[in-house]
Write a sequence for this structure.
């Protein structure tokens, strides 16, 4: 369901329906969060942010931290798109603290990447944002998480493109894109292909 807004919406609706029916508050909170992301990604930004935030608060009330760092990165990006830079930075800072506190490292590469993306959106100097993308790449490689590595590589290649390093960006991204033998209909691989087409 990577980048599949409609698929996420359908999944979230089913999770909310079943978790409400069978009184499963943790799953209901996860469903609400995914529904919020889907809503915001489909153009209803403020409503989606409120729903996502509601889901996170429900998880906090229950006392579960599972996937919380990831949900905070989603919230941070949506807040940045809504023009609330300070709230987005608070959310990503909380996500980093969450990874450290819970040792749930699955989303660690994404947390670093999103922090870099936020700093790009907020106009922070490129050399400072590049550090976050490099950290995301390092973590993804250590974890052998190719999808997260691709996302970080796309972000870094875009940054280099914007700094006039088009050849370097292309040479860096191309081998990683070529590693994938399937999934060409997913948002991340489509994004990588579009960027390479632009750079080549």
């Amino acid at each position: 369901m990577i980048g599949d807004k409609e698929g996420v919406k359908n999944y979230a609706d089913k999770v909310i329906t079943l978790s409400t029916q069978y009184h499963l508050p943790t799953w209901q909170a996860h469903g609400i969060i995914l529904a919020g992301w889907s809503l915001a990604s489909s153009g209803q930004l403020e409503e989606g942010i409120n729903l996502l935030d509601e889901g996170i608060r429900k998880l906090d009330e229950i006392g579960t931290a599972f996937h919380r760092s990831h949900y905070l990165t989603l919230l941070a990006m949506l807040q940045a798109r809504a023009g609330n830079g300070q709230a987005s930075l608070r959310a990503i800072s909380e996500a980093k603290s969450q990874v450290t506190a819970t040792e749930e490292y699955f989303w660690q590469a994404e947390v670093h990447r999103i922090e870099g993306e936020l700093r790009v959106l907020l106009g922070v100097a490129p050399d400072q944002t590049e550090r976050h993308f490099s950290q995301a790449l390092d973590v993804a490689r250590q974890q052998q998480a190719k999808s997260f590595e691709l996302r970080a590589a796309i972000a870094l290649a875009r940054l280099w493109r914007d700094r006039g390093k088009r050849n370097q960006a292309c040479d860096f991204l191309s081998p990683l894109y070529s590693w994938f033998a399937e999934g060409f209909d997913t948002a991340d691989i489509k994004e990588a292909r579009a960027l390479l087409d632009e750079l080549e």
